[in-house]
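Anyone opening a protein record will find just a pair of labelled lines. A complete record is shown below as an example:
=====
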Amino acid sequence: MKSPKFWTVVLLLVVTALILHSRGDTDRVPPSEPLKLMPETIGSWTAQDLPIADDVLSVLGKGDFLNRIYTSSQPVNISQTSEPVAANLPIGLFIGYFPTQRTGQTMHSPQNCLPGAGWTFDSRRYINLKDVNGKSYRVGEYQISNGEIRQFVIYWYQAHGRSIPNEYVARAYMVADAIRLDRTDGALVRVITQIAPTETVADARERAVHFTSLMAPMLSRFIPN
């Protein structure tokens, strides 16, 4: 015999399905600007668009995607522990915005995609990251490696003015917002930078955090609150 907890979960799923069905199959999608209009200059970094292969786009599904690398030609003195030249290492920015996830379309988790590409997660934690305006974002930060190559990664799920580092919690909020707001739109925001052999993990983290704090205030133009 199934436990009361099991039947409670089943009941909640049935009620959720009935409510979603009663509210129709169409999401309310607030207007937003296309991600290609993300500023090409952020701080001292300048962007270069990177193409996304067709097979990758087919896996990602229907959405708006930005895949860029930001580089700085000038030393960015953000570190107290390494040579300034290390701060010149590029920053990768990927944003995937999905206007609707009602038809089974969901955001892919780096926790699943990166290991498939040979990357191993060496460390992980959730933190509160403040942007240059003082707004706090709840994000995940990770150190990953593939052989001798190491990268520092910051990513989170952004939806309806909310930042969430955990994909399962993000999905729970998506269901709740589908019921309350008729909205299932949301985005994955990922910032990544190499950890050079000549620098510490703290240096790479500072570079990623600094870039993210400058970029995050721009997100509301492309990911509706």
Helices lie at 4-22, 54-60, 110-116, 167-181, 201-215. Strands lie at 41-42, 45-49, 64-71, 91-98, 120-130, 136-146, 149-159, 162-164, 186-194. The chain has a mean pLDDT of 86.
